[in-house]
């Protein structure tokens, strides 16, 4: 009984780990890179919203 419970627990952990990894994977068709050069001069009060997007897999210089 203990062995079957241990097997079931390990299987559950394995399934949870693989499903969590699959949902957090970045989409490969997003073609976005990070800015290599930025400029100063935008007043913080002028910013209405800010969205940070991770670089795509094709970006070599980020």
From TrEMBL:
A biological process term (GO) from this entry: immune response
Q: What keywords are assigned to this protein?
A: Cytokine, Disulfide bond, Signal
A cellular component term from Gene Ontology for this protein is: extracellular space
**Domain Chemokine interleukin-8-like intervals:** 32-61
Q: Which domain of life is it from?
A: Eukaryota
User: Molecular function (GO) terms listed?
Assistant: chemokine activity
Q: Where is the signal peptide?
A: 1-24
Key word Signal present? yes
Signal as UniProt keyword? yes
Enumerate the InterPro entries for this protein. Answer: Chemokine_CXC, Chemokine_IL8-like_dom, Interleukin_8-like_sf
One Pfam match, given by its short name, reads IL8
Under what name is this protein listed?
Answer: KC protein
Q: Which organism is it from?
A: Meriones unguiculatus (Mongolian jird)
């Amino acid at each position: 009984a203990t062995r079957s419970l241990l097997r079931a627990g390990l299987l559950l952990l394995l399934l949870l780990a693989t499903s969590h990894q699959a949902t957090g994977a970045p989409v490969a068709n997003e073609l976005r890179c990070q800015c290599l050069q930025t400029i100063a001069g935008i007043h913080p009060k002028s910013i209405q919203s800010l969205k940070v997007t991770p670089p795509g897999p094709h970006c070599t210089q980020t």
